[in-house]
């Protein structure tokens, strides 16, 4: 509209002949329509991008890693500054244990989304995965990167419960030389207590356990359960009892998780893993994994390919090698480069 008005105004001001004015008006209208068409095309392209990105994310949630990666790489090639696409790529590579690719994608996500707590948190996780398999010197350097990323994630969003949990676990588990410290974990718990009470109790519980103050640890784990009766809090309590060798209490807590988790989300995968570690309720554990794989709550919090391999190994341990082979094969159909599935097949 502004372009049309300005050309007409200049025509009147400069006494342009009516015919010339008409030609200019037609040109202006054409330009305006062209700009409108361009904007319409841009809107269509943006909608298509969102649709493709959503489809790729859904593929990731369902464990279709090869499909997700191929789609996301195509989107990233066309939109090299799309941070959300790189973040999803990072998460896809992370699910497949492709550490270097995950770090590279998450670093691009952080550069494109400098204020994203989620991107920083996933970058920290990717560095952490690499640190697990690194030597002592490179491990120290990576640990500092993990710390910096997790701290940045919490600083950007103090309500990011996943980032707060990740940072607290780093403080509790890492040596002081790379920035760990139990006092830091307690301070973080105090910082987030009002907004993230379950996470705060969990931090205090893990800190007390590290200090061998088991009475306080149990009390805090139970306080985390009492916040909202969430299945992940029951898993934390069950894991604590398992570490303490209190198997009956652990079994009770894990069964509570399975009872309250109506969504059949990643928490039941954790419960099944702990039951398997205890060599208790193997049938219940296998059914929990099948329930997860059949649910609408699948996500990269418990990547489907990892759950398939877990279920396959459970089946193999009970002599069901045919069933195990099927599960390992399904994992490789979803992620052809998933090394743990390949290794599991070789070991059958």
Topology (SSEs and partners):
Layout: H1 2-13, H2 18-61, H3 65-78, H4 83-95, H5 99-112, H6 117-132, H7 136-156, H8 161-173, H9 182-192, H10 197-210, H11 214-228, H12 231-243, H13 247-260, H14 266-278, H15 282-294, H16 304-317, H17 321-334, H18 339-347
Helix pairs in contact: 1-2, 2-3, 2-4, 3-4, 4-5, 4-6, 5-6, 6-7, 7-8, 8-9, 8-10, 9-10, 10-11, 11-12, 12-13, 12-14, 13-14, 14-15, 15-16, 16-17, 17-18
Q: Which segments are poorly predicted (pLDDT under 50) over 5 or more consecutive residues?
A: 1-33
Order of helices and strands: HHHHHHHHHHHHHHHHHH
**Mean pLDDT over the residues:** 89
What percentage of amino acids are in beta strands? under 5%
CATH 2nd-level architecture of the domain at 233-300 = Alpha Horseshoe
Gap from first CA to last CA = 71 Å
Nearest-angstrom radius of gyration?
Answer: 27 Å
Kindly state the number of beta strands: 0
What is the CATH class designation of the domain at 233-300?
A: Mainly Alpha
């Amino acid at each position: 509209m502004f372009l049309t008005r300005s050309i007409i105004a200049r025509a009147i001001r400069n006494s342009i002949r009516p015919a010339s004015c008409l030609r200019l008006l037609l040109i202006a209208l054409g330009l305006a329509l062209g700009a409108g068409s361009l904007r319409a095309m841009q809107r269509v392209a943006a909608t298509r991008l969102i649709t493709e990105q959503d489809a790729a994310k859904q593929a990731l949630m369902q464990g279709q890693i090869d499909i997700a990666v191929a789609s996301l790489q195509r989107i990233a090639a066309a939109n090299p500054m799309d941070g959300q696409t790189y973040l999803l790529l990072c998460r896809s590579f992370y699910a497949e244990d492709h550490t270097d690719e995950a770090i590279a994608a998450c670093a691009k996500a952080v550069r494109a989304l400098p204020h994203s707590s989620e991107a920083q948190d996933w970058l920290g996780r990717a560095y952490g995965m690499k640190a697990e398999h690194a030597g002592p010197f490179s491990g120290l350097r990576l640990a500092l990167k993990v710390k910096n990323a997790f701290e940045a994630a919490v600083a950007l969003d103090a309500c990011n419960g996943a980032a707060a949990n990740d940072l607290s676990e780093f403080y509790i588990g890492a040596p002081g030389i790379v920035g760990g410290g139990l006092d830091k974990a307690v301070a973080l718990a105090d910082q987030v207590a009002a907004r993230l009470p379950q996470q705060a109790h969990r931090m205090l519980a893990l800190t007390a356990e590290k200090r061998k103050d088991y009475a306080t640890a149990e009390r805090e784990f139970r306080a985390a359960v009492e916040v909202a009766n969430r299945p992940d809090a029951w898993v934390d309590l069950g894991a604590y009892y398992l570490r303490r060798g209190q198997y009956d209490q652990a079994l009770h807590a894990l069964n509570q998780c399975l009872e309250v988790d109506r969504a059949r989300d990643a928490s039941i995968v954790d419960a099944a893993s702990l039951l398997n570690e205890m060599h208790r309720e193997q049938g219940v554990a296998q059914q929990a994994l099948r329930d997860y794989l059949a649910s609408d709550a699948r996500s990269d919090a418990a990547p489907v390919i990892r759950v398939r391999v877990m279920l396959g190994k459970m089946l193999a341990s009970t002599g069901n090698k045919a069933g195990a082979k099927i599960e390992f094969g399904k994992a490789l159909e979803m992620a052809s480069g998933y090394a743990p599935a390949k290794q599991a097949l070789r070991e059958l």
